[in-house]
Amino acid sequence: MELTGSNIGTEKDPKMSLLDVTENTIIPAIEEKVVTRYNDGGRVKVCVVYQEDGAGLHQDKTYIREKKKEFEKRDWIIFNQPAQSPPTNVHDACIFPMMGKYVSREQGLNYGSRLLKADELHKSVMKIWADERNLPAITRSFSGHHQMVLAILDNKGDNNYLSERGGISFGIRKFFMTSPEGDGVIMVPEPQREGESIQEEIINHMRIRKLRYNAPKTTTRTKARLSQQQNDLLADWMDYERMEDDVFDSWDAMG
To answer: How far apart are CA 67 and CA 219, in angstroms?
Structure first.
């Protein structure tokens, strides 16, 4: 079935409307799995920041208009990623390549490496997505994706680092370890210095190496601009008491 922005097609030629999926599946799922889970019974404001690329169906005017209405009702923010920048999307940068590799393996093991039919491809993708053994890798992708953003900042917007040897080796695996439950990742804990075991010494060594890029001081970002919606939302919910003086001065200058 063709995926469109808002066109549902006809009875003879039905189409899958992204607007319909957004309103009836994606938004309710975000409210249930994110907002309700983290809003502490309504005492904490949870702001969803939603990102999309420049695919054709995302440019559908009806889809843009109606999605914007639904997001504004909830004080959610929409950020569209820059053109020609798939690394800024965690799915494009990490999850899709990982799943593609596993689908190729599934294709070779169970289908003799032949071209998969639509239902076979769907079955393979869902099998991989539902495999809980992949949860740590998926979680690690989100936990460490800020490094991709910092790499772009460090390279002043250039993406040559993507083609360099080790250009996207950020030290994520050394910084985030699989959680005891095996359903995600946690930061590698700081080891105790006295009476360290061999394992603790190894972890400490890994910890010393740290992540490749450090977050820049907010006061060095001189070209950042917020939309009025973003400015108003942050002004309402910002915890000023936790700001350092230089950060407060920068924020005050922006507003």
So the answer is: 34
Question: Domain boundary residue among 55, 80, 105?
Answer: 80
Output DSSP code: residue 60.
Answer: -
**Assigned domain for 193 exists:** no
Answer yes or no: is 123 within a domain: no
Residue 31 lies in a domain: yes
Q: Using 50, 70 and 90 to split pLDDT, how confident is the model at 9?
A: very high
Give 169-202 pLDDT, tens digit per residue. Answer: 888 888 888 999 988 898 877 655 665 566 666 6
Of the candidates 75, 45, 76, 37, the one whose C-alpha atom is nearest the C-alpha of residue 237 is 45
Query: Containing domain of residue 238, as a range?
Result: 218-254
Least confident of 62-66, 123-127, 169-173, 192-196: 192-196
Alpha helices in the chain (DSSP H): 18-21, 27-30, 36-38, 61-73, 90, 96-110, 118-130, 135-143, 146-154, 172-175, 198-209, 228-237, 245-254
Nearest-angstrom CA–CA distance, 64 and 228: 19
Work out the average pLDDT over 84-97.
87
Rounded distance, CA 52 to CA 71, Å?
Answer: 14
**Once rounded to an integer, what is the mean pLDDT over residues 230-247?**
75
Q: Is 87's pLDDT higher than 70?
A: yes
| pTM exceeding 0.85 | no
Q: Residue 72 in 3-state DSSP?
A: helix
Q: How far is CA 41 from CA 48, 52, 202, 231, in A?
A: 17, 29, 42, 25
CA atoms within 13 A on the CB side of 186: 8
